[in-house]
Amino acid sequence: MRTSISIAAAFLLLSGAHAQTPTDEASEAALTDMTEECTNYNYAPVVNAASSFPTLWTPVSSVPTTDPGYAKFIAMNASIPNIAPKGTLGVPDNTINTYPSSDPDCWWTESQCTTPKTAGVNPDIASVPEPRTLGYGFDDGPNCSHNAFYDYLESKNQKATLYYIGSSVMIWPLQAQRAVADGHEICVRECLFSDIYLGLYGTLASDDTWSHRSMTAFNNEQAFGELWYTMQAIKLVTGVTPTCWRPPLGDVDDRIRYIAQQLGLETIIWKYDTFDWQANDAAITPPVTPQDVQNNYNTFINDATSGDFNTIGAIVLTHELNNFTMQTAIDNYEKLVAAFDHIMPVGVALNKTTPYVETNYTQSNFEEYVAARAGGSNSTSGSSGSSATGSNSGSPSGTGSKAQTTGTGSSAGVTIRASGLTLVLALVGALFIAQ
């Protein structure tokens, strides 16, 4: 039997498991020991707002009529494209087996379609316009033990687009705040409560299957809720509201694109996948090895070196998901630098100088970013962080790797410590699995 637990209860139970170490973003960012980084803590704004969010670890089944988002949903509902959900509560059905080859819904999962068939729906962003430019980013953060990785990016004066899961933001708010403090661009990674729950349960219960919560398998209200509550979580913790998102597994069609668009979110997809999220996952058949992932990196880098991106830039799928994915990103960073003329956040490559709803925060455009990197600095400005204050108060998702893996060293001279996901799983296992 599976049980659910409220956000407030989760924090109260978890906070007693270890000494409370970080008190703010700066003190958390200064931690260098994985156990300390992944020590659970209470963050007052999250605990105080718990009743405004769905129960942790469960998909959003509906939006309460008392929630401010409900009126937004009702206002858009009648105009949402009339496309049937391809499953129930985020679990896909067999639609893909009978789906028309004409692809009337522009369903990425079926055809990698990025140009909508429905009038008024904006196309996906699958590449960046600047030649020989990499739109650099990582999915499925914040990982509680990402300091070594973020320190490495900072040492290289490198900014990235970070696609954050709402649940992870709520659990590791100070880690999420570091992204804004370091000048990275934050986007929504959806799946506030659904994929992370499946990931935890699958790992803890040794489940041999992996069932993603696919956006096209939600009804209109549920899909709205998954995005809405993730946006609210990021706003609560970091003080900024994203204007971009990435669907788990790329599962998006014109109905979901439209819902996201009405929430002010641009859909960012990819054309290249390192498959780093599949490495060492026993549920993947045939198995994906670390060498397979490296081969995928090598192919992508060779394509860049061979001139495939001489007229238009690229976006590649990589992850902050666990120790292996972060370490592999470090190991390949200098190779990417050698292969591309420019590496930058997706929004910067799109000349999107106001990345959030809040207009007091700006980031560089393409030319400014290139000039700043040449001069040894990058420019972001604005205020961020939760308006409330808290004290002492990695999760798997989206693409769904179950197991935390261990890095094998770094050619870049940096070694990521063992990630805190295993520690977190051990702590929450007793909370979310009832015998």
TrEMBL record:
Single biological process term from Gene Ontology: fungal-type cell wall biogenesis
Q: Where is the composition biased (Low complexity)?
A: 374-401
GO terms for molecular function, please? Answer: chitin deacetylase activity
Ranges for domain NodB homology? 132-351
PROSITE patterns listed in its UniProt record: NODB
> Which cofactor names does the annotation list?
Co(2+)
Gene3D superfamilies for the chain: Glycoside hydrolase/deacetylase (3.20.20.370)
Q: What topology does the record note for this protein and the membrane?
A: Lipid-anchor; GPI-anchor
Q: What is its EC number?
A: 3.5.1.41
Full protein name: chitin deacetylase
